[in-house]
Specification:
Helices cover 6% and strands 51% of the residues. It contains one helix and eight strands, in the order ββββαββββ. Strands 1, 2, 3, 4, 5, 6, 7 and 8 form an eight-stranded antiparallel β-sheet that branches. β5 and β6 form a beta hairpin. The longest helix has 8 residues. The mean pLDDT is 88.
């Protein structure tokens, strides 16, 4: 089967088409975001060698965000203890916006909490980027606006 991809104005999504907000506030100091969910799915066997059905279990989500140090310090101010892990759960929205705004696709990473409070820098770095793993409850995929 030959499937030709549909191109709209020959414009594909890129890093420049991503808009990230944390609790509704646009985050411009983001350099990377990663998120996924995984579902437990297994074959169910009966009286033959082959599966007779499938069982579906938990869906687990994971995420991480990479920010410039200045943004991390700004976020840290909302923690009474100074620990990122003590900040209340928050949502992150990731919108993919093509030029011309013909279609906006938004994914919402729900109820995120920081899992670590970490920094790393080395000689020669011109900027300090901080990658922070997150624990989300779930992800809402393909919310079209």
């Amino acid at each position: 089967m030959n499937v030709t991809p549909k191109m709209i104005n020959n414009i594909m999504h890129s890093w420049a088409s991503i808009n990230v907000t944390i609790e509704g506030v646009p985050e411009v100091n983001i350099t990377a975001i990663e998120y996924s969910d995984k579902e437990e799915i297994e074959n169910i066997y009966g009286a033959s060698r082959f599966p007779i059905g499938r069982g579906y279990g938990r869906v687990t989500a994971s995420a991480s965000i990479t920010l410039h140090m200045e943004s991390v310090e700004s976020i840290r101010k909302s923690s009474i203890t100074g620990r990122l892990q003590d900040i209340a759960p928050f949502d992150i929205s990731v919108s993919y916006i093509k030029a011309g705004g013909a279609q906006i696709i938004t994914h919402v990473i729900k109820n995120c909490q920081f899992l670590e409070n970490t920094y790393s820098s080395k000689e020669g770095d011109l900027k300090v980027e901080v990658t922070l793993p997150l624990l989300p409850s779930h992800i809402i995929w393909n919310t079209k606006i």
